[in-house]
Amino acid sequence: MHKTPHAMIYGTGRSVPEKVLTNADLEQIVDTTDRWIMARTGIRERRIVEPGTPLSDLASAAAREALDNAGVAAEEIDLIILGSVTGDMKFPATACIIQDKIGAKNAVAFDLSAACSGFLYSLQVASAMMAAAGYRRILVIGAEILTSMVNWQDRDTCVLFGDGAGAVVLGPSVDNRGIIHSCLGSDGSCANLLFNPGCGSVNPPTPENAAAKLHTINMAGKEVFRHAVTAMTNAMQQVLQEAGIAPEQLNLLIPHQANLRIIEAVAKRFHVPAEKVYVNVDRLGNTSSASIPIAIDEARRAGKIAPGDLVGMVTFGAGLTWASSVIRF
Ligand code: UT7
Fold it and tell me: Treating both helix axes as pointing N-terminal to C-terminal, what angle do 291-301 and 118-133 enclose, rounded to 10 degrees?
C-alpha cells in the first residue's frame, strides 16, 4: 500500500424517516407484486418522508449525530459538502441551509450533484480540499428524498427508491488511517439513460410540464443495470490496483444499494464472501447518495467495522457517474 491518507473518518451518523412503505403497500398503488420486487431487486420495504419534508431536516439530523459521534462541535466545522440531487430548493445550496440548522457558522458550504455517486464524489473532493486547501474538520453528507421525484404510476421505477441521509465528519489522518485512495468516473454520453428532465432550464416548471410529469425520474432500467455492473466492477478493480490492495484484504465491501443482483454480481467478481458484503437494500431500497453513508454508520454501530479495518466502497448513478474508495477506519 503506497498511498498516504490525508483525511480520516472521525464520526458517522444517519437519519431515515419513520414511515415504512412495504411491497404490499405498493401492490395497492401500482400493478406489481412483492414476489416480483423481491426477485428482481431484493427490496422488501423502504422508508419515506411525509410529502413536503425538507431534505435539510433529514440531513441535519444525520449531521448532528455524526458530530456527536466524532466529539466535534458544529462551530469547529470549516467545510460542509452535501451530495444530493433532491435539495430543499433549486437554490440556495441545501448545504447552506444545513449549515444554519446545525449552527456550523464557521463553515463554507456547497452542494455537489452526482446522483447516486454524490457521497463518494463529495468524500474525494473533501479529502483533496483537506490536502490542498487546509480544511481541518469537514462534514460530508449524502442525503436524498427521491420520493419527491418519483412517478407513483410508473411501476418500473416507483418500487425502487427510498429516502434517507448519512453523514461523516472528516479530520486529519492519524496512524495512516483514512481515505487511502479514490477513483471517480463519468460518461455524459449516457445521460439519457437515467434523468429527471423537468424543472431545469430545458423544461421549466410550467403547468403543462408539470401535467406531463416531466419532474419525475425516467430510467432505462435494463441498460442502467448493465452499465452499473460493468462500471462498478471496473471502478473497484482500479481503486484496488492503484492502492496496491488485494480484494481478500478488505474487511468489508460497501456497494451502493440499488439492487441486490448488482451487489451480488460485483461481490462475485472479486470473490468477496457474502458475510463481508454490506446489504441494507432490503430494508431501505435505493436511497441514492445516502446509501453508502447510511451503510457506513449502520456497519460501525453494529460492530461490523472496527478501527483499523479496511473497507472498500463502490457506487454508480445518473450522469453516468461512478466512484470507488478504499478507507482504513
Ligand atoms: O442507483 C443507480 C441506478 N439505478 C440502478 O442501478 C437500477 C438498475 N436497474 C435495475 O435494477 C433493474 O433493471 C430493474 C429492477 C429496474 C428492472 O429489472 P429487470 O430485470 O431489468 O426488469 P425489466 O425492466 O426488463 O422488466 C421485466 C418485466 C417487464 O415485463 P415484460 O416486458 O417482460 O412483460 C416489465 O414490464 O417486468 C415488468 N416490470 C414489473 N413487473 C412487476 C417492470 N417493473 C415491474 C414491477 N412489477 N414493479
Answer: 80
Q: Answer whether residue 2 is part of any domain.
A: no
**Ligand 1: lining residues by beta carbon, under 6 Å:** 32, 36-37, 40-41, 116, 155-156, 159, 194, 221-222, 224-225, 228, 258-259, 262, 286, 316-317
Q: Given the CA of residue 158, which atom of ligand 1 is nearest to it?
A: 48
How far is residue 165 from each of residues 46, 118, 134, measured CA to CA in Å?
13, 12, 27
Instruction: Note whether residue 1 is domain-resident.
Output: no
Could you list the residue range(s) of the whole structural domain that residue 125 is in?
7-174
Instruction: Single out the catalytic residue among 183, 227, 256, 259.
Output: 256
What is the grid cell recorded at 254?
Answer: 460497501
Give the pLDDT mean for 301-329.
Answer: 97
In a domain, 295, yes or no: yes
pLDDT tens, position by position, 258-267: 999 999 999 9
Q: Are 188 and 133 found together in one domain?
A: no
Residue 295 has pLDDT above 90, yes or no: yes
209 included as an active-site residue? no
Q: Catalytic annotation on 256?
A: yes
Q: pLDDT by residue (tens digit) across 127-182?
A: 999 999 999 999 999 999 999 999 999 999 999 999 999 999 999 999 999 999 99
Active site residue 116: yes
225 C-alpha vs ligand 1 centroid, how far in Å? 9
Query: Domain for residue 315, yes or no?
Result: yes
Indicate whether 107 and 34 sit together in one domain: yes
Which residue is closest in CA terms to ligand 1's atom 4? 258
Q: Tell me the three cell numbers of residue 294.
A: 447510511
Strands 79-83 and 138-145: parallel
Stated as kind and residue range, the H or E segment containing 66 is helix 55-70
> The CATH number of the domain where 229 resides is what?
3.40.47.10
Domain count for the chain: 2
Give the global pTM: 0.97
